[in-house]
What does this fold into?
Amino acid sequence: MKKFFTLLMLMAISVIASAQVKKVSILGDSYSTFKGENPEGYAPFYPNDRNDVTEVAQTWWSLYIKAMGYELDKNDSWGGTTICNTGYGHRDVTKTSFNARAGLLGNPDIIFLFGGTNDAWANSPIGEYKYADWTDEDCKAFRPALACLLNKLRTFYPKAEIYSILNSELKEEINESSREICKHYNVQLIELVDIEKQNGHPSIKGMKAICDQLMEAIKK
It folds into this structure.
């Protein structure tokens, strides 16, 4: 009988421990991709013969989740995508932008939003600050689109912790806009520094630096 109760106690502890493991979802671009880890039809950058990251365990998000003892819920990252609805060549990317995919993150406890790089590189319109009543036309520009996106994430996942990651070496309009809008929505913005890159994307060393900077910025 004693062994039976001991077994029940161990099972209960196991269930409680399992229930406490936090789930992480990512809304990102190529920096957060890896073949086989993103939805079918998305465009992954990794692995790539012009970059030394060859294993999923070397990605920033895999390193972070392992270090924290968390588990991955959804990784909705699509190479080349912008937060706003204006992509490269000023194409309308309403169907693939971050805003279009905001509701596809499952049931996470933690959300990492890692975008803005392609908005900067594609020279997408910056626009004006706007915090309500966004139109389709508004969301063709970065500032209103980012505000709309954070509002969606707050609405869709009210219990989730949301962190926005900002790439290094972006133009100041993107940086300052991200600071202002994240502050408005009380979302912690983690500004990366000194990220080593190969072919414009984090290398193994760069991925580790991202993980380390997240660990430093977010206290467990």
In short: Helices lie at 2-19, 60-68, 117-121, 142-156, 172-184, 204-217.
